[in-house]
């Protein structure tokens, strides 16, 4: 049984009502509270909550004029939008707002009863759907960016673009950590497990990815959960730095710990050349041979060969030419000096 807390956004200015809702629902929900419809809409876009509860008894009717905004975006139109309203305002609520709302409860019931009805709604699973997953899978192979469906760190499915770029034919036995160029895979795995279990909907970070033949490209990767009812599953979309970014950073709450983990591990693999290595690369750019470099720098050819091998290994290259190109592309040497 999935016991993960759901997300509830409460819009209210009544401290007493807020206290009763928190007491009745805090075991089932992560409760976020705002005091206006305006801030409620922007908070909802960030949280993508399961339920939005509007306390009309503490808000003016004028403030409700933009209520339809909560259903105007597909990011929110699957949230369960409900209202707790004054019984004396029933006619006006039914006329003006009922079509937009999923359900209305009136003050003829107590907040305690309201909490029980909300919990029953969650238990019926009708607050959460497969909307995101169904929509995504329908477009899976139409996306030009590499995209994978993950169960924690294990790849469940991959689109054609991912197969082509990473030279992988099938998902069975493939893990995301096979492609992440880092020295601490255990930390990455734990970070992904935490994201899968956590409340946040997305994580956007930068890291180095290993393609076929150990070629490496820097990329921005975006993790996003498709369905909170499916424990541990989420998608990952890849944008290489030379491509246009298609994912917005403004929708959904961020799992900062995941983002930091990947960036930290990327830094582990980044390499700054030593002064001597820079000197050797700069002379290589001028066309110097090993013997000429030895005479210029007053070091033995054997030492130069050792430096060359270290440069190739550190830049994850196959030849010294690739290492030079890597150094130029990452601004690791001063071409003016070279």
What is the gist of this entry?
The chain is of the alpha/beta class and 338 residues long.
Question: Would you spell out the secondary-structure blueprint of this structure?
Answer:
Elements: E1 6-11, H1 15-25, E2 29-34, H2 37-47, E3 51-55, E4 80-85, H3 90-96, E5 103-106, H4 111-123, H5 131-139, E6 147-151, E7 154-158, H6 160-166, H7 185-197, E8 202-210, E9 216-225, E10 233-240, H8 256-269, H9 275-285, H10 290-297, H11 301-314, H12 320-329
Parallel strand pairs: 1-2, 1-3, 3-4, 4-5
Antiparallel strand pairs: 6-7, 6-10, 8-9, 9-10
Helix pairs in contact: 1-4, 7-8
What do you see in this structure?
The structure is a single chain. With 338 residues, the chain is α/β, with parallel strands linked by helices. The protein folds into three domains: 6-123, Response regulator (Rossmann fold); 131-269, PAS domain (Beta-Lactamase, 2-Layer Sandwich); 275-329, Arc Repressor Mutant, subunit A (Orthogonal Bundle), CATH 1.10.10.10. It has twelve helices and ten strands. The chain has helices at 15-25, 37-47, 90-96, 111-123, 131-139, 160-166, 185-197, 256-269, 275-285, 290-297, 301-314, 320-329; strands at 6-11, 29-34, 51-55, 80-85, 103-106, 147-151, 154-158, 202-210, 216-225, 233-240. The protein has a five-stranded parallel beta sheet with strand order 2-1-3-4-5, sandwiched between helices. Helix 3 (90-96) links the parallel strand 4 (80-85) and strand 5 (103-106). Helix 1 (15-25) packs parallel to helix 4. The radius of gyration is 27 Å and the shape is elongated.
């Amino acid at each position: 049984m999935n016991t993960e807390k759901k997300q509830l956004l409460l819009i209210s200015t009544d401290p007493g009502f807020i206290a009763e809702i928190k007491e009745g629902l805090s075991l089932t929900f992560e409760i976020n509270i705002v005091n206006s419809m305006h801030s409620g809409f922007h908070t909802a876009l960030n949280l993508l909550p399961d339920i939005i509860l509007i306390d009309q008894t503490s808000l003016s009717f004028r403030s409700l004029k933009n209520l339809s905004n909560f259903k105007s975006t597909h990011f929110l139109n699957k949230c369960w939008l409900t209202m707790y309203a004054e019984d004396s305002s029933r006619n006006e609520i039914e006329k003006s707002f009922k079509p937009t709302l999923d359900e209305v409860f009136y003050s003829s019931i107590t907040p305690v009863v309201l909490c029980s009805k909300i919990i029953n709604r969650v238990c019926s699973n009708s607050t959460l759907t497969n909307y995101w997953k169904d929509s995504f899978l329908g477009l899976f192979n139409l996306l030009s960016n590499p995209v994978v469906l993950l169960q924690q760190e294990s790849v469940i499915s991959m689109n054609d673009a991912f197969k082509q770029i990473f030279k992988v034919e099938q998902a069975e036995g493939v893990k995301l950590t096979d492609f992440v160029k880092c020295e601490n895979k255990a930390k990455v795995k734990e970070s992904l497990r935490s994201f899968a279990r956590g409340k946040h909907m997305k994580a956007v970070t930068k890291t180095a990815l290993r393609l076929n033949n150990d070629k490496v490209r820097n990329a921005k990767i975006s993790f996003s959960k498709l369905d909170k009812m499916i424990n541990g599953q989420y998608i990952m979309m890849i944008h290489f730095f030379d491509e246009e970014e298609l994912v917005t950073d403004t929708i959904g709450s961020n799992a900062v710990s995941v983002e930091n983990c990947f960036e930290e591990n990327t830094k582990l693999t980044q390499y700054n050349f030593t002064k001597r290595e820079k000197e050797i690369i700069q002379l290589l750019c001028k066309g110097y041979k090993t013997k000429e470099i030895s005479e210029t720098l007053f070091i033995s050819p054997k030492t130069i060969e050792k430096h060359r091998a270290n440069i190739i290994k550190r830049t994850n290259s196959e030849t010294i030419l690739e290492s030079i190109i890597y150094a130029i592309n990452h601004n690791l040497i001063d071409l003016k000096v070279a």
